[in-house]
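Thread: "does anyone have the structure for this chain?"

Original post by V.I.:
We have the sequence but no experimental structure in hand. Need at least a predicted one for the grant figures.
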Amino acid sequence: MKLASVLVAAAVIGAPLAAVNSGLALPQEASPQDVDYLNHFRVFTGEGEPANLEDIVRAMAGAEAVLMGEIHTDPVGHWVQTELLREVLATLRVGYEGGALRHVALSKEMFERDIQGVVDEYLQDLISERLFKAAARAPRHYDEDYRPMVEMAKEAGIPVIASNAPRRYVNRVSRLGRDALYDLPPRARSFLPPLPYPQPSDTYRQEWMSLMTDMPMEQRCDPPPGGPPGDPEPHEGVGAAGADTASVRARRPETPPREGTPPGMPPAQEAPAGMGAMSHMASFMENGVHAQSLWDASMAYSITTFLEGNPGALVLHMVGGFHVRNFTGIPEAIRHYRPSTRTLVVTMELEDDFRTFDPEEHGGIGDFVILTDRSLDLWYARNCLEEGREG
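Reply from O.Q.:
Generated one for you, tokens below.
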């Protein structure tokens, strides 16, 4: 759906939000850290025009599915997501269609479809948070990254959709191919979209192959320029200075947390090597794009199923950026399952110069593009400095 059409539909929104730098009202309980985040991102339209978070909330009024592409280790992006959810609950639920309460749901990539019952039990206060996080296989940094959004949804009494395919079945596709899903028993297949799920588009396939070609086969732990947040001095032995891989990290397929390897790629030590392995390499690269597409299809099917059962609803879906960037991946799968769905794509990108929109790099990758400060990215701190890290 074109942004202009969304903005026309957004005319139903009532009073404007307070303008504080970003255009978004700060919560009264905002901490100094929260306030500082306001100076570490900029919002643009997909055409590069300056915008703010208020503009995004207004545009949401004309959408049914808002797809917010994040970088999982970006604290600024998670703060932005939380504030947008807060404003949607405060504004759209009371300001849509002349005051009618609009049904809003939060959808999360990191929750898999087989634990929907666990999520529902927690939202209904039937189980403790400790047991919820264990049973829901919450990611390692759930408390910092995603808990504020889930708790906000719980307080507001809105659903949280566990939208993703279980990783064990995505792994099966990456090893054996998409047809291997037909061997699963009916209960296992009930956690997946109907088979066969959509094939990747030619554009999406090319995006995937390009990223896989550019991605290092081994995790690099070269200290970023200036050191990671909270760790200004490089740690001895972490890694020597080398090629900057930050730009590859920022646009790599964003896998659900706790997994550093994209779905179609085995760990580095298992990657095929040598001339005799070329056919095997081609096989797992092909399986990889189908594994990625299974994630896209599962999330799209979860979103559209909810919309079909709740006419007039709005779903805010939080997901890794590759799944929605350039309107491929999930947007394509949503069109497959429910062609009439009005979508709004908000893509977040880490940049050294987050104040400058580069038309060649950022143009058209979303209805809105939010550039965030790469210097605050926690990838290095989480993957290279934390005790017990993998790799």
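V.I.: this helps a lot. The mean pLDDT is 81.
O.Q.: and Residues 222 and 243 are 8 Å apart (CA to CA).
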